[in-house]
Design brief:
By secondary structure, the protein is α/β, with parallel strands linked by helices. The protein has a single domain (4-119), classed as Response regulator (Rossmann fold, 3-Layer(aba) Sandwich). It is 42% helix and 20% strand. The chain contains 5 helices and 5 strands. The protein has a 5-stranded parallel beta sheet with strand order 2-1-3-4-5, with helices on both faces. α4 (88-95) links the parallel β4 (79-83) and β5 (99-102). The protein is globular.
């Protein structure tokens, strides 16, 4: 069964690049360009991992990540926080994310961090 990933980012280019890379690696990719009803979305998709952008419409990445982590049925799903913000590590910590990835990133970095988080 293919591993599922949910990518939340308001940048369509990032969504399409990540989708392409991850689908090439056999992933089932779901994307959202907002965080509306994030808990319901995650419960519906039940991804193995989530990539969460910091600057995303509606509630923003920090609140969205905190909402997921506060919901028992989905709190165990690993979240990789990603942002072009210089402070991405601190933001990921505040959000309660499991890991972080600074933008811009290269394909190998993306593949490496997704694999490492899944192995944890």
């Amino acid at each position: 069964m293919a591993k599922r990933i949910l990518i939340c980012d308001d940048d369509e280019d990032i969504l399409s690049i990540c989708t392409y890379i991850l689908e090439e690696n056999g992933w089932e990719v779901h994307t959202r360009n907002h965080c509306r009803e994030i808990v319901e979305t995650v419960e519906e998709i039940m991804p193995d991992i989530i990539l969460m952008d910091n600057w995303i419409p509606e509630m923003g990445g920090i609140k969205a990540t905190q909402a997921i982590k506060a919901t028992p049925s989905i709190s165990q799903i690993p979240i990789i926080y990603f942002s072009a913000n210089n402070d991405v590590k601190a933001l990921a910590k505040v959000a309660g994310a499991d890991n972080f990835l600074a933008k811009p990133f290269d394909i190998e970095e993306l593949e490496k961090i997704v694999s490492s988080v899944l192995k944890q």
